[in-house]
Write a structure and sequence with these properties.
disordered N terminus; two-stranded antiparallel ribbon; 4 strands; globular; mainly alpha; 481 residues; two-stranded antiparallel sheet
């Protein structure tokens, strides 16, 4: 498989050269950890995280959440689409994520020493964002001994349960700091996500906590229940804006990472086609986002890359150089709240959060989502239905909203909840239900869907602490389905 490169965006794109604390002529990685200004290293960490999440893991997530599929006239992503991705594939994703964590954790360390609680909170949230993606894909990861440089070149791998507990503890500890007593400079333009608005970082931290608790509903229901109850009882504010990097421009190495990886660096626009799974669901519900997600043409059955049909028959997905990388969108926050209210608050507020989530995701494409959640609308909340029916509505709408760059979250949620459902018949069958997951036509795992990523060879060959490799079909710790 050809190597896919993450965006190597330059932080000078985002910050003014007049800022005396930000010297774009100095590479943060070439300096001693103590010699880097927070204002210089924070944007490097943010851009690194956006590049890793937004290219490597966005690609895998998009295929495994069945938002798109490998085109029938090229072969760039066959190993993802047929579930044969192995130790030599996508080694760059792991390296890019830990490189970003290098900067993020150094910001956190320095901020702690300086008692700069603003930067400390920001770094703690970004640290959780990166590790949540890693641990949900790989199950065991270096956490407590990671990013120690030459001091520890073979960090131990921590259990996923331990990583989850550590992420929760880290976020709660950062939230406990008195931001009004924060010392030193305040984040501003170097904060590429919120521009220094710390109330948004607090809400983002709470929303990440909510996600971490909900992801444990099937494996540790008591932990999930107690954690969510504590958040709701505290009156925690949740994210009401997008947590996103939005400063991309249509220029080499400065554009959206998925666009940069697939369209500019591969110099082709035919690799990724519309999967029948998401395409059929949107089409069946008269969802106008069809024209924003896909070019002209119809869908290709998931994994049917040996199809001999004309290329023009199958729609290419639409990608833009300036699409933001969402760490967490406003609609994801609302759907998380809807599930929490339904599970742990007797349903109070669930419909309102769900409706607002649908409206928000439609509004991003300038459509009126209120008609979809109105009585009789395609996405009306099943208020009189069972909990399972309500959860299915919440998770399904969340799944549609993750296109094109956050499909990995749809993949995680499908594994946790079982929604969207898995089709008992192939997509060629007349009884196929639009939107149900279908096993890849060219799948290599005997009918079993992927559940995780395998560790890259660059890790297993250099770190004697790396766990034994498990098949991609082995569930991660919170996956009880």
């Amino acid at each position: 498989m050809k190597k896919i490169f993450a965006t190597l965006a330059v932080t000078s794109l985002f910050l003014s050269c007049s800022d005396k604390d930000f010297d774009i002529n100095r590479d943060p990685d070439s300096l001693t950890p103590d010699g880097i200004a927070l204002k210089s290293e924070l944007p490097a960490g943010i851009v690194g995280l956006a590049g890793a999440q937004g290219s490597y893991y966005a690609l895998i997530g998009g295929f495994w959440s069945q938002h798109f599929t490998q085109g029938n006239s090229s072969n760039q992503y066959k190993e993802i689409d047929d579930y044969s991705i192995g130790t030599n594939d996508y080694t760059g994703g792991w390296a890019a994520m830990y490189d970003a964590l290098n900067d993020i954790r150094n910001v956190k360390r320095i901020a702690n020493e300086q008692e700069n609680w603003n930067y400390y909170l920001i770094a703690s949230v970004l640290e959780a964002q990166a590790n949540q993606i890693l641990v949900d894909f790989y199950d065991q990861i270096p956490y407590t001994e990671a990013n120690q440089g030459a001091a520890n070149l073979q960090p131990k791998f921590d259990s996923a349960e331990m990583v989850y507990d550590a992420m929760v503890a880290s976020l709660k500890e950062a939230l406990s700091k008195d931001l009004s007593a924060s010392a030193g400079t305040a984040p501003a333009a170097d904060d590429l996500v919120f521009g220094g608005q710390m109330s948004n970082w607090t809400a983002y931290a709470n929303s990440l906590l909510l996600k971490l608790y909900l992801r444990q509903t099937e494996v540790r229901p008591d932990v999930a229940s107690a954690g969510v109850a504590e958040l709701l009882a505290s009156g925690a504010e949740f994210l009401d804006v997008d947590a996103a990097v939005t400063q991309f421009v249509d220029a080499p190495d400065r554009s959206n990472p998925l666009y940069e990886s697939d369209r500019r660096q591969l110099n082709t626009g035919i690799n990724i086609r519309a999967s029948r799974t998401l395409f059929s669901y949107l089409d069946d519900n008269g969802d106008p986002r069809m024209s924003d997600y896909y070019e002209a043409g119809g869908p290709l059955n998931q994994g049917d890359f040996n199809n001999t049909g004309a290329q023009s028959a199958f729609a290419v997905i639409k990608l833009s150089a300036t699409t933001p990388v969402y760490f967490m969108s406003r609609e994801e926050s609302l759907f998380l709240q809807a599930e929490a209210f339904e599970r742990y608050a007797g349903g109070a507020g669930a419909k309102a959060a769900y409706d607002e989530g649908v409206v928000e995701m439609m509004d991003k494409y300038d459509y009126n989502g209120s008609v979809f959640v109105a009585p009789g609308g395609a996405y009306e909340y099943p208020s009189a239905g069972s909990f399972a029916e309500k959860l299915e509505a919440i998770i399904t709408q969340k799944w549609t909203s993750f296109f094109p760059g956050n499909g990995f979250e749809g993949f995680f949620e499908q594994n946790r909840t079982g929604y969207p459902r898995i089709s008992p018949v192939p997509q060629t069958d007349e009884d196929y239900v639009p939107g149900e997951f279908a096993y890849s036509v060219n799948g290599t795992t005997g009918g079993q869907f992927p559940k995780r990523l395998v560790f890259p060879s660059t890790v297993t060959s250099t770190n004697q602490n790396a766990p034994a490799l498990l098949p991609v079909t082995t569930p991660v710790w919170w996956d009880a389905n």
